[in-house]
Design goal:
With about 180 residues, the chain is an alpha+beta fold. Helix content is about 35%, strand content about 25%. The chain is globular.
């Protein structure tokens, strides 16, 4: 790593879900490099990218990536960026829940307000629990994710732009890239 560089992890929202939003990993790398970032690496085809930059403003990094992604892919790609330290904290926090069912994490673009957190967490039931920690919403669900009431769409409606990953991916990225 070059002196002055910092490593970030970007999570792309709503790509590779249907025929119209295809965005292959190679194109993601090309776009990130076109935005001026270096040491770019992707992980699986769900929109996870690691890169180095001299920028320190998360908002500026997200804006640069979103412009580059739209230019490369031809459609808007909301992007949520975390530092390595933030990603590790999300993975570590997940361990504290000790949940036996499905565990997903909705990664938020903006920090939620205390009132929004309280309102979301109040929607939890015995079978589906939402716990907010910073810009991460841990969704502790039953065995069938596709029947869950607490989804990323619900999170976005209440807390703003978010993208969702299962805990296995979050842990793998924290181990691989941090």
């Amino acid at each position: 790593m070059i002196c002055g560089m910092a490593t970030y992890i970007g999570f792309l929202r709503a790509i590779n879900l249907g025929a119209k939003r295809k965005f292959p990993k190679a194109d993601i790398v090309t776009a990130v490099e076109a935005a001026g970032f270096t040491d770019v690496e992707t992980y699986i085809n769900t929109g996870n990218v690691r890169f180095d930059t001299t920028l320190r403003s998360r908002a500026k990094i997200e804006t640069a990536l979103e412009k580059a992604f739209e230019a490369q892919a031809g459609f808007a790609v909301p992007t949520v960026v975390f530092t390595q330290k933030e990603l590790v904290a999300i993975a570590e926090e997940a361990a504290s829940f000790g949940h036996g069912g499905k565990h997903y994490v909705s990664l938020l673009k903006e920090p939620p307000t205390a009132a929004a957190i309280k309102a979301l967490e109040a929607t939890s039931t015995a079978d589906e629990v939402a716990r907010v920690g910073g810009r991460a919403v841990h969704l502790l669900l039953g065995q069938n994710y596709h029947e869950a009431r607490l989804t990323n769409a619900v999170i976005e409606k209440q807390l703003g732009v978010a993208t969702n990953r299962n805990l296995t991916v979050i842990r793998a990225l924290a181990q691989k890239w941090c």
